[in-house]
Amino acid sequence: MRRVWRALGLDPGFPVITVGGTNGKGSTCAYLEAILGAAGYKTGLYTSPHLLHYNERVRIGGREASDAELVAAFEKIDAVRGDTSLTYFEFGTLAAMMQFVDAGVDVAILEVGLGGRLDAVNVFDADAAIVTSVDLDHMDYLGDTREQIGFEKAGIYREARPAICADPVPPSSLLGHARSVGAALRCIGRDFAGQREGEVWTYRGPDLAWQGLPLPAMAGACQLRNATGALAVLEAMRTRLPVGESALRQGLAAARVPGRFQRIARAPDVILDVAHNPEAARALAEALHAQRAAGRTLAVVGMLADKDAEGVFAALRGEIDAWWTCTPDSPRACAAEALAATLRTHAGEAPVRVQPDVNAALAEAKSAAREDDRILVFGSFYTVAAVLDHAATQQ
Question: Fewest Cβ atoms nearer than 10 Å: which of 178, 217, 243, 392?
């Protein structure tokens, strides 16, 4: 990565904000992009994975990169890399930063793909970095304890630069690594906090306080924590990227991420969520509990085989009245029958049915639903993407 970046001869020349964590990365990136954009900055945003189109991964000034722009960047990288081998994600990361440099963005927001320490985006030194949460996921790569995973996540922190942690119980490995590299660590609950006060909320940091802020537009109690972390980043970067309160309000109200408690139909409601690990499932359960349906909650779930299905189902136990399992369109998918067997052990008395794919499962759930019921489709980006893709072809 560094060799090819040097061969390209590019210098960012703009602040870089790196966003890592087990969950909450996409939402935190969305708050940062929306608020900074509302403040008048030209933003570059690099996220992953995409749901429907690769172009979703690269946004400049709120606009997705075009096919022509992406292909031109890939061609230039291929022409200069020589014998250096690059992975899919490394190609994409370099292409995104190339476009940000060419477009003259004011700030780049980079979402970590996996872990942090060895992730492609970590080639670029973050002027501010945030770890949104630390939980058990990608354990084959990152370790099977929060301490091991926390160390990997903390690898995005840099000496003497803002290092934000929005996990309320940070692993000691994360705290220790931040100290060892001399990062300017700020932790939620200790150095900054967000407090809901009715239909508004207050952010309080080391030097600033913003009161009467609108609640985040995205649903779920976890979104207040994600927004709080984003504001902590902005406070830490305020001398380089000053933001007014009106931009905060506008950005908090406008930020959206597809597939995060996204309602795509009514009567019955159909809600999509990419939750695929226990921490995300707990946040999903809280959102379902806080927004009770008049009728039942029916769930369609498809997951990858390397995910902790038992932990996910345990988190949602008691919130779901009937289940449909399916097999996502991925070579890493867990078969619908195997997922159903796990569910029958961990989902209580709720009935479980099996369908070969997500849209067949959703169709059967819709036929079983009444108007006051709601249907939740979740478990993987692949599962949610298949529903969105099918819906697009029906319009």
Answer: 392
